[in-house]
Amino acid sequence: MKRILFTCVGASDPVRGDFDGPMLHIIRHYRPETVYFYMSKEMSKRKDEILLAINTVTGNIGHEIESIPLGSDKVDVSDFDAFNHEFEGYFKDIKEKHSDAELLVNISSGTPQMLITLALLSQDISFNIKAIQVSSPAKASNTSKTTTSKDYDFQEALDNNFDDLEESENRCVEPKFIELKRSLAKEQLRALLYDYNYDGCEKFALAQGFTKDSRVIKLISHLSERQNLKNSVEIQKEIIDYDFYPIKDSECKRVTEYMLILMQLQKMGKVTELLIRLNPLVIRLQISFLENVFNIKKDSIASKKKDRYIFDTKKIENNYKELGERLNKKYRDGFRDSDISVNVMKEIINFFANNKKYAGNLKKLNHIDYFEMFNRFDDVNEYRNKVAHSLIAITEEELKKATNTGTADIIRNIKKIITFIHKNTYQEKILDVYDDVNEMILENINISATQELP
User: Fold this and answer.
1) Of all helices (H) and strands (E), which one includes residue 118?
2) What domains can be seen in the chain, in order of their start residue?
3) What is the pLDDT of residues 339-382, one digit of tens each?
4) What is the 8-class DSSP label of residue 246?
C-alpha cells in the first residue's frame, strides 16, 4: 500500500544530537512515497536544510521520495482552531489525491498545539491514518541543542548521524490509545450497520468526518433509501462490481424487498413491528397466489376505490356465486364491500382449493401445503389484532404460545411462497444484499470483513 507522510517541522528536525529528528526517522523506517512537511514562518527559513536532509537519508537507504513543503505565515502558533481547520484541509486534499494510500502522521514534531491537533485528527476514521511517535535516543527528555539554536551546525549533525549506522534502533512507536479510539469509533459504526440502523449510521459517519460524496456515505444512503422501499439506483453510478438489484421482475422485486425488511426485524427481535408490517405483504402474496394457482384475477373479486382495492360483493356474486354464498354464511351480518384482508383472502383461497372444478390446479403445488401457511398467517393476524390496542410489546414466546408460530416460521413461509409464485425470476442471492453492502462499508473504513460479527 502506498504511504504518505504528513509532518510538522519541529525543533528536533531534521537532525538533533547526532540522531534523526522524528520526521527523518519515520521516513527512514516507513519509507513513504511522499512527504508533506508543514513549516511555521520561523521554520520555513530552514526549508533547504530540510530538503537536503530528506534527500541524504533517502539516498542512503536507496528510496525515492517526493517532498512537498507546506508553509504558513502564522505568527501565533498557539491557535488550536486555526491549525485544526488548516490541517484538516491538508488531510482532505491528500485523501483526494491519494485515495488508496495510508496516511502516516508524525505526532512528535511541532508545537504542542500542532501535536494535539494532529493527535485529534488521527482519530478520524474517515481517513486511513497511522499516527507515529518517535522517542528520543536517550529514552528521556531530549537535552541536546535544538535545531533552532544559534550555534547549531546543521551539516555537522547530518554528517555525524548515528541513525545511518546499520545497528541503529527503530525508535518509532504507534500509540495504542489513538488506535483504540479509532477502533472504538469503527466498532460503533459497525454495530449500527448490523443493527440495520442506517439513519443513525449516516449521522455517526458524518460526525466522524465522512463527506456526503464519500463512498461510505453513498453506500449507507443507498441502504437507508432501500430500507424505506425506495428504488435507490444512484449507487449504480459508482464503479462497484456488484449487482445491487439482481431481481429484475418488478413484482418479484417489490415483495422480496419487503421481505428483506421483515427479515431485519426478525433478526433484531422486533416482533411487534414485524407483525404490524406483515399484513400488506401477506395480502399481496395471497392475491398473486390466487391468480398463479387458480387463475382468479384480482379484478374479478375487487374494485379500485381511489387509492386502494376493496372487495366487490356484486363482482363476487356475479363471477363466483358459490363463493359469495359461502362468504355471506361465514360472516354474521353477511359479507359486504370491505378492504381486502388476510382473513377473507384465506377464506377465498380455501374455497377454490376445495372446489372440484379447480382440483387440477393443485398439481402446481408439488405437495407443499401453502394453504396451511396462509392459515397460520391468519392466526398471527388475529392475535396481532387482539393485542393491537394494548400498551404491551409482543414477545417471541407470547407469539408462539398464542399461534404455535414464531417469527422464523413466518419468514420461512414467506420465502417459500415468494419462491413458488416467482420461481422464474426470484434470485436467492438477494437475501445477502444488506450484509454484502454492510461489508463494503466496513472495507471502505478499513475494518476487516472477516472479523466475527456481534
Assistant:
1) helix 112-121
2) 3-174 (3.40.50.10770), 180-246+437-444 (no CATH), 250-426 (no CATH)
3) 999 999 999 999 999 998 887 888 888 778 899 999 999 999 99
4) -
